[in-house]
């Protein structure tokens, strides 16, 4: 499991063997069964996880009890409620395993130690944080400015492997549309593909 993570660290952060060994010593391998929660509302997200196998979603529940998917995470992606992690405040989110999954787990203390002692790791995380913030802003803009068909097409094109692994009602929630709207859009897209 760590070898998968080490490859990512070398590709994204050019970490050295000695830096990888420091990270290996403090990392924890964790398995989460499908449909189990990694985090529940009201608890502090005192971890950051790197997904080595499987998939997760970060979701919030509305006052009506409806689930709103905020984020997905598959292999090579990070997962946490970063707002709760940074503030130390209880989370208003859940993190659910969508498949039997595995991740490399870092506690808050361990994470802070790695950031403070490994400059290459710190730089890599800063770059990833900036890209994540940009993606988040782009998603907000897309959800308030683009028609549902465009959001759907962009999702399918950007995340083709994710699209095939995630239940459609969760994708609809992520896109900010109803399941019925998603079904209609998928049907129209299929018709376009057969006529072209």
Could you explain how this protein is built, in words?
The chain has nine helices and eight strands. The chain is globular. A hairpin with a 5-residue loop joins strand 4 and strand 5. A four-stranded antiparallel sheet has the order 1-8-3-6. It has a four-stranded antiparallel sheet with strand order 2-7-4-5. By secondary structure, it is of the alpha+beta class. The model has no long low-confidence stretch (mean pLDDT 92). Helix 4 packs across helix 5. It has a domain of 106 residues: Jelly Rolls.
Low-pLDDT stretches are none
CATH architectural category of the domain at 2-107:
Sandwich
Q: Give the N-to-C terminal Cα separation.
A: 43 Å
- Name the helix and strand elements from N-terminus to C-terminus, one letter apiece: HHEEEEEEHEEHHHHHH
Indicate the CATH class of the domain at 2-107: Mainly Beta
Radius of gyration: 18 Å
**Major sheet attributes:** 4 strands, antiparallel
- Helix fraction, binned, reads 40-55%
In spatial order, strands of the major sheet run: 1-8-3-6
Q: What fraction strand?
A: 15-25%
Coarse morphology: globular
The fold-level CATH name of the domain at 2-107 is: Jelly Rolls
Number of helical regions = 9
